[in-house]
Amino acid sequence: MARKIIIDCDPGQDDAVALLLAFASPEELELLGITTVGGNVPLRLTHRNARMMCDIAGKQDVPVFAGCAEPLVRPLQTAEMIHGETGINGIDVFEPDTPLQDEHAVDYIIRTLMDADQDSITLVPTGPLTNIATAIDKQAAILPKIHRIVLMGGAMREGGNRTPSAEFNILVDPEAADIVLRCGRPITQLGLDVTHQVLSTRDRVDRIRALGNPVAEATADMLSFFDRYDTEKYTSKGAPLHDPCTVAWLLKPGLFDGKDCNVSVETQSELTLGHTAVDFWHVTDRPINVHWVYRVDADGFYDFLIERLARFGEDS
Ligand code: RIB
Ligand code: CA
Question: Which CATH superfamily is domain 3-313 in?
Answer without folding.
Answer: Ribonucleoside hydrolase-like (3.90.245.10)
